[in-house]
Structure formats: structure tokens, C-alpha cells
TrEMBL record:
Signal peptide residues on this chain, from the entry's feature table: none
Highest taxon of the lineage: Bacteria
Entry protein name: 5-methylthioadenosine/S-adenosylhomocysteine deaminase
Gene3D superfamilies associated with the record: Metal-dependent hydrolases, Urease, subunit C, domain 1
The species this protein was found in: Brevibacillus reuszeri
Stored CDD domains: ATZ_TRZ_like (cd01298)
PANTHER family: AMIDOHYDROLASE-RELATED DOMAIN-CONTAINING PROTEIN (PTHR43794:SF11), AMINOHYDROLASE SSNA-RELATED (PTHR43794)
Residue ranges of every copy of the Amidohydrolase-related domain listed in the record: 60-425
Keywords: Hydrolase
Sample GO molecular function, one term: hydrolase activity, acting on carbon-nitrogen (but not peptide) bonds
Length: 475
């Protein structure tokens, strides 16, 4: 049978079955946008012919990684709000109020490039101005599940003193919901189906009951999912108790929100009972280990969720929190932090981290029929890594294979040499083929310079921990 491409003589991680589905001398045949076959190299070469055959000796072939929660529009603020308390009010608001949509758009592209170069092929992006950000995914050739951020908050919410109840404005919420609907109608299913749309209520504390219910009805109408922060911090819980006399998860349960359409992000402040309820109801959990670890110094209850039978995924969140959007970083954080939390080195093994960035993530975001594993009929979202990189060398295959532990605990992401999405080569020999990286970086730096100039007074007035570090010579 004639196909477009064969990748042969590789270690292949299919992520099929209960483990990682390794084939030690394996090959993948690709035709058009899909995988035609996966198996032993001899079998594939005997049964298929291709115009191009990649000799992947000394390489690892695996499914592209999935980043299940991102805010790429915040990436322009990378590294500006670390090691501090009151992250949102003192760290983010002074920057956000002094930035333009055009500037955040330039930062967004840099983060997508970062993800691609570290093997991410599917991005779940959740942000303001998604109607413009989504064009980056189309241009670069990535797969994306996108949502417009919907809330009822005014742009000057950062001026509100800590602890005061947010004033909600239904008119603002309706305007933002219209933008989310417009995103759906203009982009859902576009780019050969690579772009799909979700609804993005920011959090139960930031929308009134009526708008939350309207979002739920729209998700049913459009047969899509809801991407929402749930119990993401003590600020949210305090707001919910003040406004509704209920914590977030019981409140959402009363509204019928806890079902398989919900991608519940963080669950940082969820009790064990609440965590088990979310799992029982069938909602998925998106676990952002690095972001919550850095911003809040906490480990969300991912183990309680998994032990309750829940479907979970890993996400990188935003650059000014996590500082990077690299799923190798997330896999490592997830495994290590949970071992420390449980004081048990057997907790959260490497294979689990890898599954939560591939096939389990695909299930959690509703794309497992297309991506997450290497299987005939699925989309050809494939990455090739160099096993001769120092972080992955040497290789043992007997009596213990070390490839998976090294991927999670040692790899940095720069071992990724080639990235295919929808059967198209997007990156080869670490060079992106669809966008000019250097020009993207130059434009982002110009935008950052402007934000720096405009935000100086507001940052000084906020007097954050990180600003004082700067004043004292520690930065």
C-alpha cells in the first residue's frame, strides 16, 4: 500500500493499552492527515511504500503532547509575578491594565512556538481576545481547543480591595459570551478540523447564576465542553461563600454543572469529599502542577481525584505563573510534587505522568477519538525525539527499560527534533517551518518594552514582594 511517509527503526511509544505500548524497533506509516499503521519496522516496510522514509534509528517516536490548560494571552508577562503573595492583584493587574490586545497577541505566538518546540501538538487555550489568538494556531499548523474567557467583571477589577465582593455586571458578561459564540461560529471545525471551540466561563465566582446556566445550555446546544477554573483558590471560595453561602463545588453541583462536559481546572481548594464528587459526576480535572506550586505553594488533590476514578489531564497554565509552557516540565512537576505530598516515592510514577500528557489528556478534553495515542485511523500528530541527547542517554531495554522515566524526570523538551501535526511536518531538525521564530521574538520584545514603560508607576504603587526584591537588588 502506498502512503506519504514512513518513520522507521525507532523506539515507538504508542500509548495504547493500559501502559505505554512500546515497540522497540517500530515504525509508523502516515497517509494524508492520518496514521495508516503502527507496528514492527519489518512489517510496516513490507506492507507499505512511501515517497519518504525517515530512518529514526536512535530516536523515539510518540504521540504529540497535549497541554490541557493554557492562557497564552498572558505570556507577554513571563517572569513578572513569581515568588510573591497576592499574585493577581499585585502582580498581574498592574501589567494587564497597561497592555494592549495587540501586545498580548504577540506574546501568545511566542508561547505557542515554545510549546511546539517542546513537543506539544494540541493546545487548550483559554483567554480574552481568543478570536485573534486563534489565528496563530491556524498559521503555525497546531491543533487547538479554544475558548473565550467569559466573566462579568469590569476591566478595573484590580482596584478592588482584597476580600471585597466582586461587583458583577450582566451586560459585561453577555458581551463576552457573544464573543465566545462568535468564536465558535467562525472557527469551530476549521483548518481541517484542527481548531475546535469550547465555552470558557472564568470561574463560578466571576459569573452570576443566570449567565452560568446560559453557558451550560449553549454547551449542550453546540455539543461541546466547558473549560472553567473550579475551586482554584481561597479567593474564589471566599467570594462564593459571601455571595451564595456555598462553596464552589456544591454550588456547581446544584446547577448541574458537574458532568462530562466540564473540564474542571485546578480544584486547588477542593476538599477530599468535593474532589470525589467531581470525579463521581464525570467531570474531568485539569491539573497544573507547576503553576499552582509556584503561585500558591500548593499541590491540588489530583491523587484523590484519580483514586476516585476521575479522568484527568495536565496543563501548563500561564507563563507569569508557571514561567514556561512545556509539558515535559509539567510531567516532572506532577510526579515529584505528589511524591513529596504523600511522602511516598511510588506515588505518581513516570508512566502516569506520561499518560496524563497524552492519551488520558485526550480523553479528558474529548479528543481521544483523534489524538493521544499512535493508532491506525487517528490523526498523525507525532513527535520524534533524539535518544542520543545527554538527558536521554544511555538507553536500557533489559531487564528494565529506562526511556519513560528519563522522559519524565530528565528530558527538557529540546530533545524533540521533529513535529508532525495532521500529517504535516511543522518542525524539522528543531526548525519551525510555518512561522519566523526570530521575528516573533523580536515583536514580543518590542511589546514588552512598551508595557514596561507604561506599567512602571502602577507596579511601584502595588509594592509587591517581587518589586521589593528588585529594589533591594535581588533581581
Amino acid at each position: 500500500m502506498k502512503v506519504d511517509l514512513i518513520i522507521a527503526h525507532a523506539f515507538v511509544l504508542t500509548m495504547e493499552g493500559a501502559g505505554v505500548g512500546i515497540v522497540e524497533n517500530g515504525a509508523v506509516a502516515i497517509n494524508g492527515d492520518s496514521i495508516a499503521a503502527v507496528g514492527a519496522t519489518d512489517e510496516i516496510l513490507a506492507g507499505y511504500q512511501a515517497d519518504r522514509v525517515i530512518d529514526a534509528s536512535g530516536k523515539l517516536v510518540m504521540p504529540g503532547l497535549i497541554d490541557a490548560h493554557m492562557h497564552t494571552g498572558l505570556s507577554i508577562f513571563r517572569g513578572m509575578a513569581q515568588d510573591m503573595s497576592h499574585w493577581m492583584r499585585k502582580g498581574m493587574w498592574p501589567l494587564m491594565k497597561n497592555s494592549t490586545k495587540e501586545e498580548t497577541l504577540k506574546g501568545s505566538l511566542v508561547t505557542i512556538i515554545e510549546g511546539i518546540k517542546a513537543g506539544t501538538t494540541t493546545f487548550c487555550d483559554f483567554d480574552h481576545s481568543m478570536g485573534r489568538i486563534v489565528s496563530h494556531y491556524a498559521k503555525i499548523g497546531a491543533r487547538a481547543r479554544v475558548a473565550e474567557t467569559v466573566n462579568e467583571l469590569s476591566d478595573d477589577i484590580g482596584k478592588l480591595p482584597v476580600g471585597e465582593l466582586y461587583p458583577l455586571d450582566p451586560a459585561i458578561g453577555n458581551r463576552k459570551l457573544v464573543a465566545n459564540i462568535k468564536l465558535f461560529e467562525e472557527w469551530h471545525g476549521k483548518e481541517n478540523g484542527r481548531i475546535t471551540c469550547l465555552f470558557g466561563p472564568q470561574g463560578a465566582d466571576m459569573l452570576g447564576k443566570e449567565l452560568l446556566l446560559e453557558v451550560k445550555a449553549l454547551a449542550q446546544k453546540y455539543d461541546t465542553r466547558i473549560h472553567m477554573h473550579v475551586a482554584q483558590g481561597d479567593r474564589e471560595i471566599e467570594q462564593m461563600v459571601k455571595r451564595h453561602q456555598k462553596r464552589t463545588i456544591p454550588y456547581l453541583d446544584e446547577l448541574g454543572y458537574l458532568d462530562s462536559r466540564l473540564m474542571a481546572v485546578h480544584l486547588t481548594e477542593a476538599t477530599k469529599e468535593e474532589t470525589q464528587l467531581v470525579a463521581k459526576r464525570g467531570a474531568s480535572m485539569i491539573y497544573c502542577a507547576g503553576s499552582i506550586g509556584i503561585i500558591d505553594g500548593l499541590v491540588p488533590p489530583i491523587m484523590d481525584f484519580l483514586e476516585a476514578g476521575g479522568q484527568a489531564a495536565l496543563g501548563s497554565d500561564q507563563a507569569p505563573g508557571n514561567n514556561c509552557n512545556n509539558m515535559f516540565n509539567e510531567m516532572k512537576f506532577a510526579a515529584i510534587l505528589n511524591k513529596v505530598k504523600r511522602a511516598d516515592p511510588k506515588v505518581f510514577p513516570a508512566w502516569l505522568s506520561l499518560r496524563l500528557a497524552t492519551i488520558e489528556s485526550a480523553k479528558a478534553i474529548g479528543l481521544d477519538h483523534e489524538v493521544g495515542s499512535l493508532k491506525a485511523g487517528k490523526k498523525a500528530d507525532v513527535i520524534i525525539l533524539d535518544l542520543e541527547a545527554p538527558t536521554l542517554c544511555p538507553i536500557y531495554t533489559d531487564p528494565i527499560r529506562n526511556i519513560v522515566p528519563n522522559l519524565v524526570y530528565s528530558a527538557r523538551g529540546n530533545e524533540v527534533e521533529t513535529v508532525l501535526i495532521d500529517g504535516q511536518v511543522i518542525m524539522e531538525n528543531r526548525k519551525l517551518l510555518t512561522v519566523d521564530e526570530k521575528e516573533a521574538f523580536r515583536q514580543a520584545q518590542e511589546a514588552a518594552d512598551q508595557i514596561s514603560r507604561r506599567s512602571r508607576d502602577d507596579i511601584a504603587a502595588a509594592d509587591s514582594d517581587v518589586y521589593r526584591m528588585m529594589e533591594d537588588g535581588y533581581l
